[in-house]
Amino acid sequence: xxxxxxxxxxxxxxxxxxxxxxxxxxxxxxxxxxxxxxxxxxxxxxxxxxxxxxxxxxxxxxxxxxxxxxxxxxxxxxxxxxxxxxxxxxxxxxxxxxxxxxxxxxxxxxxxxxxxxxxxxxxxxxxxxxxxxxxxxxxxxxxxxxxxxxxxxxxxxxxxxxxxxxxxxxxxxxxxxxxxxxxxxxxxxxxxxxxxxxxxxxxxxxxxxxxxxxxxxxxxxxxxxxxxxxxxxxxxxxxxxxxxxxxxxxxxxxxxxxxxxxxxxxxxxxxxxxxxxxxxxxxxxxxxxxxxxxxxxxxxxxxxxxxxxxxxxxxxxxxxxxxxxxxxxx
Length: 330
What we know:
The protein has three domains: 4-89, Orthogonal Bundle (Arc Repressor Mutant, subunit A); 102-181 and 285-329, Periplasmic binding protein-like II (D-Maltodextrin-Binding Protein, domain 2, 3-Layer(aba) Sandwich); 186-277, 3-Layer(aba) Sandwich (D-Maltodextrin-Binding Protein, domain 2), CATH 3.40.190.10. Helices cover 49% and strands 20% of the residues. The protein has helices at 4-9, 12-24, 27-34, 38-52, 68-89, 109-126, 146-149, 152-158, 195-198, 202-207, 222-229, 243-251, 261-271, 299-329, and strands at residues 57-60, 63-66, 102-107, 131-136, 164-167, 176-184, 186-191, 209-213, 235-240, 257-260, 273-277, 285-292. The longest helix is centred in the C-terminal third of the chain and has 31 residues, at 299-329.
């Protein structure tokens, strides 16, 4: 811990500098983000090293890497800065109706399509000055369990790359709050009159050419794992980086794809594609919104987190009403 003498020499700006260097892993990029010269950042880092009695960051050909001491300090320093920012902002309480803040929400486009429009409707009526930035999220690697595939997003949340992440998160570390927004499963989508759509058997599923959504072009996913358990395999003829491109491609080709049911339901009619049940057992995913627990001390972020949950609940209620009307008409 810092002793009394060290606290007398402490500067909150040094902790902010530590946070940015840890995020950027590069002194030059940290300087640009902080609007300082590289020499000023190096000087501040020197002061911080003396204060904490550790090198903190080691030079590499590509930038800097944190020492074990720096890695251990990352979370408590992030908590301290979040607390300090909350205290400093408390002089002017958050007012959604007057706020002009911008928040970044990360999600796969197959998920953001579900919550975006109801969220924008709520913001339009309650917080017209608040802006939203959407960040596309997909697992950085294929062939992993769901429990591991989305783990990197927690580091991105703590680094401030986004404010809220919405994804099929199975478990969140204790330092995060994760709220289930809805449960999702997958269907097979194909162009109208595709042979698979006429007779959606497992045999035809395996014989068809498939499209897979993958950020890095990795063709292996959870569908392949399910097929392997039955001694089956499929040919992935194409990978694309997002669901919107994938659905548009399926509509104009002989490819088929497994995609989120809600996403497909929203866009199938417009693109003249059809959906069928997957002819093998696939798991259901819990779509959760996650934020660092300490970040919820920010009244604005806590407000948005609640509004996001409300938006999805409202979308679910509207969808249930539409289904009721369809059934009544039949």
